[in-house]
Design goal:
The protein contains 22 helices and no strands. It is mainly alpha-helical. The longest helix is centred in the middle third of the chain and has 44 residues.
C-alpha cells in the first residue's frame, strides 16, 4: 500500500478513518459511562468536557489552522522552526488556561448549578497544559501528506484514553472523579507521543530558521480567535441554558442526542483540514479562481453522496439509534438527534478553508459575531416566554443554518459568482429525494417487524434502505463506484 500518496482524496480518506475511530471510542466511552454512572454523575462528566471544549475554542488562539496556512507556504526545511514557535506559544497559553480553569471552577459550578463540578474541574485543570501543545499535529501531518501517521496516532491515543477513563469506573465501581482522573493521565501520554511524532517527521530534513515571526502568526490567528470566541457562544449557548434551567438529567439527554451525524463530521472535518493548505497554496501562487470553484464543487457532490443518505436514514431511525448506543433511558435524546440532523444537509462543504485562504478571516469573525448575538437573544427569550429544551435546540439549528448562508454569500460576493454556480443544487436535490424514498420504504418495513431489539431493527432497516437506495441511484444514473473505490485505488498506487 502506498501510504505516501499525495492525492487530496487519499489524505481526506485517512483523516476520515481517524475521525471515525476517534468518534467510535468516544461513543463506546459514552455508552459505558452512561450505564455505570448515575445520570447526575454522567451529566457532571459531560459538563467537564463541555467547559473544557468551550474554553478551548478561545485559548487555542486559532493556531491549529495557522499551522496549515504557514507550513503550506514555506519550504519544509523551515517547518520545524515554524512548529516550534507555535508549540511554544501554546505551552504558555496552556499554562494560563490551566490556571484559569482551576481558579474559576467554583464559578462554573455555580453558573451551571452543579456542585460536584467544582472538584472535577480542579482535578481536570492540568489537562490543557498537556493537550494544547499538540493541537497542531493533525494540520502538520496533512500539510506534509502524512495523514496516515495522524490516523495511527489517533487510534492508539483514543484507545489509551478509553481504557484510562472507563477501567476504574467498570472494575472498581468508581465515581465520576475516577473517570476525570483517567482522562488527565491519558492526556499526558498523548502529549509525549504527539511531540515525538512531530520531531520524527523532520528526522532527515535539514532544518532552517524561518523568517515568519510570532507577530505574523498572531496577525493571522487572532481574528480566528475572535471568531472562536463567538463560536463558543454559538456552540455553548444551548448547553448553558439547558444545563442552567433544566438540570443535569436533561443536559445528559441533550448532550447525547444533540450531535451532528458522525459521518458528516468526519467528511467535512477531514475535507476542511486537507483543503486549507491546498487553498492557501493556490491563493499564494495566484492560481486561476476557477480551480478553487471546481475543487469546491467536487468536494460538495462527493460529500453529499455520503452525508445525505446517512442523514435521512438517521432522521427516520433516531430513536432506535439512541437506544442502541446509550440505552432505553436515553430514548428521549432522539428528539434532539432529529433536530440537529437538518444541519447535516446544509453543512456539506467546509467554508472556513476558502475564507481563510482568501484572507477573509475578519468577515468570518463578523458573521460568527452576528450569529452569536442572535442565538443568545433568541434562546433567552425562549427561556422567559416559552421554556422548552426542544425549542432551544431548534433555535440553535436555525441560527447555524443562517450563519452558513452568510458565509456562502460572502464567498460568492468575493469571487463574483452566484450561489448556483458554486453549489450543485440539482445533483444534491436528486440525492435527497432518493434518500427520502429509500428511508420511507425501510421505515414501513420496520413497522411490520415483531418486537425485537433496537440493534436488530437498525440492521434490518439499514439493509433494506441500502438495497433500495443503491437501486434507485442506479436507475437515476448516480454512481458510487468512484466515491468508494478511488481512495483504495490510490492507496494501492494505481
Amino acid at each position: 500500500m502506498n501510504y505516501n500518496n499525495n492525492s487530496n482524496t487519499v489524505q481526506t480518506a485517512w483523516l476520515g478513518i481517524g475521525s471515525l475511530v476517534s468518534f467510535s471510542f468516544g461513543i463506546v466511552s459514552a455508552a459505558i459511562l452512561s450505564r455505570y454512572l448515575t445520570k447526575p454523575e454522567y451529566g457532571t462528566y459531560k459538563q467537564v468536557l463541555y467547559v473544557y471544549g468551550t474554553l478551548l475554542m478561545v485559548f487555542s488562539l486559532g493556531l491549529p489552522k495557522a499551522y496549515s496556512y504557514f507550513l503550506a507556504r514555506a519550504p519544509m526545511e523551515e517547518g520545524r522552526s515554524i512548529i516550534r514557535k507555535m508549540n511554544g506559544l501554546l505551552v504558555w497559553v496552556g499554562l494560563f488556561f490551566a490556571l484559569v480553569l482551576y481558579c474559576t471552577s467554583s464559578l462554573f459550578a455555580d453558573v451551571l448549578s452543579s456542585p460536584d463540578l467544582k472538584d472535577c474541574l480542579r482535578l481536570f485543570s492540568v489537562t490543557p497544559l498537556f493537550l494544547l501543545p499538540i493541537l497542531g499535529i493533525e494540520s502538520i501531518m496533512v500539510t506534509y501528506k502524512k495523514a496516515y501517521i495522524y490516523t495511527a496516532y489517533t487510534i492508539f491515543s483514543r484507545l489509551f484514553t478509553l481504557l484510562c477513563v472507563v477501567t476504574p469506573v467498570v472494575l472498581f465501581d468508581a465515581s465520576v472523579h475516577a473517570a476525570v482522573g483517567g482522562f488527565v493521565f491519558s492526556s499526558l501520554l498523548c502529549c509525549l507521543s504527539g511531540l515525538y511524532l512531530e520531531r520524527y517527521l523532520f528526522r532527515n530534513i535539514q532544518k532552517t530558521a524561518t523568517a515568519i515571526s510570532i507577530r505574523e502568526i498572531l496577525r493571522f490567528s487572532i481574528p480566528l480567535s475572535v471568531a472562536s470566541f463567538w463560536g463558543i457562544i454559538i456552540k455553548s449557548a444551548n448547553q448553558f441554558f439547558i444545563s442552567r434551567y433544566w438540570g443535569n438529567e436533561v443536559f445528559a439527554e441533550f448532550s447525547n442526542g444533540f450531535i451532528e451525524l458522525p459521518f458528516a463530521h468526519f467528511v467535512i472535518g477531514a475535507a476542511a483540514t486537507v483543503l486549507l493548505p491546498v487553498f492557501s497554496k493556490k491563493v499564494y501562487d495566484n492560481s486561476d479562481p476557477s480551480s478553487i470553484i471546481d475543487l469546491w464543487k467536487s468536494v460538495a457532490i462527493k460529500s453529499a453522496k455520503i452525508i445525505f443518505p446517512l442523514t435521512v436514514f438517521s432522521f427516520f431511525f433516531a430513536e432506535p439509534i439512541m437506544i442502541f448506543v446509550y440505552g432505553k433511558q436515553y430514548a428521549d435524546s432522539a428528539v434532539y438527534f432529529r433536530i440537529i440532523a437538518v444541519v447535516n444537509l446544509v453543512r456539506i462543504v467546509p467554508y472556513a478553508p476558502v475564507m481563510l485562504a482568501l484572507g477573509k478571516s475578519k468577515d468570518f469573525a463578523r458573521i460568527h459575531m452576528l450569529t452569536a448575538i442572535m442565538i443568545v437573544v433568541m434562546e433567552y427569550l425562549c427561556v422567559r416566554l416559552f421554556p422548552s429544551p426542544y425549542i432551544i435546540a431548534l433555535i440553535s439549528v436555525s441560527c447555524t443554518i443562517f450563519c452558513l448562508g452568510l458565509l456562502l454569500r460572502c464567498i460568492c460576493k468575493y469571487m463574483n459568482i452566484s450561489a448556483v454556480e458554486l453549489i450543485p443544487y440539482r445533483s444534491m436535490g436528486m440525492l435527497l429525494v432518493l434518500s427520502l424514498a429509500a428511508s420511507v420504504l425501510s421505515k414501513s418495513v420496520s413497522s411490520l417487524l415483531p418486537d425485537i431489539s433496537a440493534m436488530q431493527i437498525l440492521m434490518v432497516s439499514f439493509v433494506v434502505f441500502a438495497v433500495v437506495y443503491l437501486c434507485l441511484c442506479k436507475y437515476a444514473g448516480i454512481s458510487y463506484i468512484y466515491v468508494l473505490n478511488y481512495p483504495l485505488r490510490k492507496c494501492r498506487g494505481k
